[in-house]
Amino acid sequence: MSGSTLVWACMSATPTTGHEWPTAPNRAGEPGPHTSVVGARTSTSGHVRVPYDHSDPTQGTFTLAYELGAPFDPRKQTLLLVADAQQFWVRPGTVKKLQADLVGSDFNVVGVMPRSQSNAVVERVSAASPMDWAKAYRLLRSGQFVADIDAVRRHLLGDDRRVLLYGRSGGALLVHEYLATHCHRVERAFTQATVMPFVQAELGVQSDRFWEEIGPETRQHISRVLKAHPARRLAILRTFQRQNFFEADVGEARAALAARLFAGDWAYFEERREAYQVSAIESLIASPYGIAVRVRLYEFHQPVADLVPKAGIPAPDFENTRAIAMPLLEAYRAGRLPPPRMNLAALDSCATEVLLLAGVRDHTADIRVQLPLAAKYRNAQVVALDDDHVFSRLNDSGQYRNLVVAFLRHGLGSPALENVVARLRGR
């Protein structure tokens, strides 16, 4: 616990744009015939049979795919890329480039394809009519993803060898959820922009700061538009929420959108919705592949559901997440679902080295939560940058890969890592 440290670094690079979800998921079906990486070291794809429900293996198994960025080399450390049910950056055909961008050739890099991309799992959870949200939660809750990750680790390395982990945003939360159960299997873990509702709930932190960050004129514009068009509230707020992933100057973009809406320019609004991929995401949410997204957002939202913003104040992040998770929230209130849980106390005995990369201007992973999270570990460090959720400035600076590699290869307190952090400080 006392081993956690905080490093503040300032950067002056001009931010670039970014976003987290693609226009639509690359829907991975059941993989074709693969050869295990362990059995044939020239292969860069493989699979392992895992239970639909790890807590009840009698319910059958499905084929979980993984992909390597290069042929497996048992002499190298193995880095697992961890994505959760509402992320699509790890999908078939992406891992070779991810390896090149993140760490290069000095590691085995393995992308574990989330079970939410499996046709077999999606068909099983979507077959019932009406929708069985208890079953969906049982098969798509984070604990199933954690067990899948460990199944791939054992398949590649055996029971005892340790791995490195990398995750960002919801995937970073999944890394911490894995550590709460399998910490002794991980040497180092790099987590970026960690969404952590369980610590947020402990602290009573409301992370949606949208209303605090916009100016009085923008507030007036938005208030009047929402009052005049109550049926379009969610569509409007969802569009503001998506600006965080696309706009280099989100403050200017918020003011411009609010002014155009106030002027009645709905054509501009529709143009922005398309540019921010709002319609594509709404189509995804409405599809069978959106079930897993709803489950994951239920895990994000339920622990902090009582931290409601002041009545009437627009809260794009909070309201968007709540709307997507609503079917599961209703099932929970009816007593048909358990609340999401994480054993935070287990982190106290975790000896894994953990680096938490945090953005001061992150709209999703609140900076106020990151140091308390790090303090739950024995060996953790927060590197906090003047940056956003997608770390536009850090990516633009060219130092991102250096930071990841220095930590994963050399660890906390190493000269290599300290040198990168010093450069981020501008020394």
What does this structure look like?
This protein has helices at 95-102, 119-126, 133-140, 142-157, 170-182, 197-203, 210-213, 216-228, 233-246, 250-262, 266-275, 278-286, 290-301, 316-333, 367-374, 392-397, 400-410, 415-425; strands at residues 5-9, 45-51, 61-68, 78-82, 108-112, 163-168, 186-192, 353-359, 379-385. Helix 8 (216-228) packs across helix 10 (250-262), helix 9 (233-246) packs antiparallel against helix 10 (250-262) and helix 9 (233-246) crosses helix 14. Strand 4 (78-82), helix 1 (95-102) and strand 5 form a beta-alpha-beta unit. With 427 residues, it is of the alpha/beta class. The chain is globular, with a radius of gyration of 21 Å. A nine-stranded mixed β-sheet has the order 1-9-8-7-6-4-5-3-2, with helices on both faces. It contains 18 helices and nine strands.
Strand adjacency order, main sheet: 1-9-8-7-6-4-5-3-2
Alpha-carbon distance between the two ends: 29 Å
From the coordinates shown, what is the CATH architecture of the largest domain?
A: 3-Layer(aba) Sandwich
How confident overall, as mean pLDDT?
90
Short description:
The chain has 427 residues and is an alpha/beta fold.
Q: What are the main properties of this structure?
A:
alpha/beta, 2 domains, globular, Rossmann fold, 18 helices
